[in-house]
From TrEMBL:
<feature type="domain" description="F-box">
    <location>
        <begin position="15"/>
        <end position="54"/>
    </location>
</feature>
<dbReference type="InterPro" id="IPR036047">
    <property type="entry name" value="F-box-like_dom_sf"/>
</dbReference>
<dbReference type="InterPro" id="IPR001810">
    <property type="entry name" value="F-box_dom"/>
</dbReference>
<protein>
    <recommendedName>
        <fullName>F-box domain-containing protein</fullName>
    </recommendedName>
</protein>
<dbReference type="Pfam" id="PF12937">
    <property type="entry name" value="F-box-like"/>
</dbReference>
<dbReference type="InterPro" id="IPR055336">
    <property type="entry name" value="At4g00755-like"/>
</dbReference>
Length: 264
């Protein structure tokens, strides 16, 4: 019978970790853990699925723990072996992060914004409501479709638009924003902000069910913001869609994206 050697036994811990941390495809990590029990044990106990997931989607480092509803791990006092409970928990974490990473990589490409929640101000409501920003065309029927604020005395004070995501979890890789060109005014002026910034966070109180109408009041203390982008300059002379590339940003569960517009 042919004798087979496991090269895991020939390499030290640091070398193995350095090799496996070079993997950038979750499918490869699953294949590694399927080779043998010793390989799977190494992948699971060192949390490599979690590390790969966080490397690909850094916003997930906020996750404290994983719960698998289909399994019920007994309390340590009931099981009588803390090592058993630890191994069970590591196995749950491994499966959860492997599934999460694979799912996030294969999400269908579509619009992430579900509905408009509020604007810091609206000039002529409802004709210039923030809800119009969800319409990609500048006209709906025979009417122009755009949002307009009441304006600020100081250009440093931003206007804010708050939205709700269309799904429980979204991966944002690109944000598109287009200034409005007032084709119905003389000279067809373009109303563009000087800078735009994006924030993402979650409401402190669950938001259940659709909202009837967007409002002009949305206190900041109702939300916890977990991500803030740098400021992006907006072109002042072209009414075209600006494509803002983001690193793969995961927005999980009840997250509200906010657009901050500064300057006139």
């Amino acid at each position: 019978m042919e004798s087979r050697m496991d090269f895991f036994n020939w390499l030290d811990y640091d070398a193995l970790m350095k090799i496996l941390l070079c993997l950038d495809d979750p499918a490869d990590l699953v294949r590694v853990s399927s080779v043998s029990r010793s390989w799977r044990h190494f992948v699971v106990t060192n949390g490599l699925s979690r590390q790969l997931c966080i490397k690909m989607f850094p916003t997930l480092q906020r996750l404290d723990h994983v719960v698998e509803p289909s399994r019920c791990v007994k309390d340590i006092t009931e099981v009588g072996c803390s090592r058993f409970v630890e191994d069970e928990n590591l196995g749950v974490e491994h499966r959860a992060f492997a599934f999460l990473t694979r799912s996030c990589k294969t999400l269908p490409l579509r619009e992430c914004i579900g509905e408009a929640i509020s604007a810091s101000s609206t000039d002529n409501y409802p004709d210039e409501s923030v809800r119009n920003t969800l319409e990609p065309h500048e006209r709906v029927g025979r009417r122009p479709s755009y949002w307009s604020s009441k304006g600020q005395n100081k250009s440093a004070v931003p206007e804010t638009l708050v939205y709700k995501l269309a799904s429980d979890i979204c991966v944002v890789s690109e944000i598109n924003i287009k200034p409005f060109q007032a084709y119905f005014q003389w000279g067809s002026p373009i109303y563009s902000a000087k800078f735009v910034r994006f924030r993402c966070g979650h409401p402190n109180v669950p938001m259940d069910g659709p909202m009837s109408e967007p409002c002009d009041v949305c206190p900041a203390e109702k939300f916890t913001w977990t991500y803030t982008s740098p400021e992006f300059p907006m072109a002042q002379f072209f009414s075209r869609t600006k494509h803002l590339k983001q690193s793969q940003l995961i927005l999980p569960l009840q997250v509200c994206p906010v657009v901050l517009i500064r300057g006139e």
